[in-house]
Specification:
The protein has helices at 12-17, 21-28, 65-79, 97-103, 121-127, 143-154, 194-197, 201-219, 221-226, 231-243, and strands at residues 2-8, 32-38, 51-52, 62-63, 84-94, 108-113, 118-119, 130-133. By secondary structure, the protein is of the alpha/beta class. Bound molecules: adenine (ADE).
Length: 245
């Protein structure tokens, strides 16, 4: 079972985000468990403060080490052993599927979500194993970012997805975006591509791979530059870039 703890000002945000669909069902099935540690519960002063003004001045507030220490000690006790501590921050390395696969190998993970101007650097240096960003934009807190990482890990757990194949044949599994999907359902006027109606497995497969390549070429040239294409895939892409079809 995967055990996830979340240290945050508002850990309920994470729980709510993961209570539905694949992640909600997986939790009910006992594939993973969750415990939130709300920083305000670990405040050490009478005013229940969790943050302080930045040393040497500047705007905003910085989360203080003491409540974080106490929350982490409680999280450790809940896990029963040392967990991987992941700090969510726009200053971290952007999340990629390869990183998600690495995290999904762990049994015990503690996510720490910042708020305000950030977290005291001394605490980060002493306790954090990985710093992860969910993209080059700034959220008002790390809770939703933590939910993103947890969701992406939980859905990789054996038994979480109904059809095990859907975790393999999908965007990023092999460095390409997914091919376009069409529901087997009529619409009033728009036709689906003839290749899909053809029924021949090889034709469908070739069409799908080519569409995935075209999409990746148009939308994510950075991914394509890193992808290892077979000779056949390279030929399909060349065909499109040279003829537009
Ligand atoms: N906290 C605020 N913005 C974030 C981001 N982009 N990724 C991770 N944590 C964050």
């Amino acid at each position: 079972m995967l055990s996830i703890s979340v240290i945050a000002a508002f850990p309920e945000l994470v729980e709510y985000a993961l209570d539905f669909g694949v992640t909600g069902r997986a939790r009910q099935q006992g594939l993973w468990r969750w415990q939130g540690f709300a920083l305000h519960d670990f405040a050490t002063d009478a005013r229940k403060s969790i943050d302080a003004r930045p040393a040497a001045g500047g705007p905003g507030m910085v989360l203080m080490p003491a409540p974080l220490d106490a929350a982490l000690a409680s999280a450790r006790a809940w896990h029963g052993e040392k967990s991987l501590v992941v700090f969510m921050s726009p200053d971290g390395a952007p999340l990629e599927q390869s990183r998600v696969r690495e995290f999904a190998q762990h049994q015990h993970i503690t996510f720490v979500a910042g708020r305000y101007e950030g977290i005291d650097q001394r605490w980060i240096d002493a306790n954090v194993d990985a710093i992860v960003s969910v993209g080059d934009y700034v959220l008002s807190g790390g809770e939703l970012a933590a939910a993103v990482v947890i969701d992406s890990c939980v859905r990789l757990m054996p038994g979480a997805l109904g059809d095990a194949e859907s975790a393999t044949f999908e965007s990023f599994a092999d460095g390409k975006l997914d091919w376009p999907q069409y529901a087997l359902a009529p619409t009033e006027s728009r036709q689906m591509p003839a290749e899909l109606a053809n029924g021949d497995h090889a034709t469908v497969n070739r069409w799908r791979v080519k569409q995935a390549l075209i999409r990746t070429w148009m939308r994510r040239p950075d991914l394509l530059a890193r992808a290892k294409l077979s000779l056949e895939e390279r030929a399909m892409l060349d065909e499109f870039t040279e003829t537009g079809i």
